[in-house]
Amino acid sequence: xxxxxxxxxxxxxxxxxxxFDTDCGLVRSEVFDTLAEAERFASRNVSxxxxxxxxxxxxxxxxxxxx
Length: 67
Prior knowledge:
3-stranded antiparallel β-sheet; 3 strands
C-alpha cells in the first residue's frame, strides 16, 4: 500500500493517496498533511479484494504550506 515516502531537502511533505473507488470504478486521488491521515484513508478505501491504494510522499507545494 505504500509508495514513495521519501522526504525532500526541506522535509516539508504532503501525502497523496491514489486509490481505486470500487463503487464507481474510477481511480481517484486525495491529498493529506500527515502520513497517519493518508494511511487511515487508504486503509478505509481498500474494502474488498479489487480495491487498492498507494500513498506517495511528495514535496509540499508552496500554496499548501501552513502559515
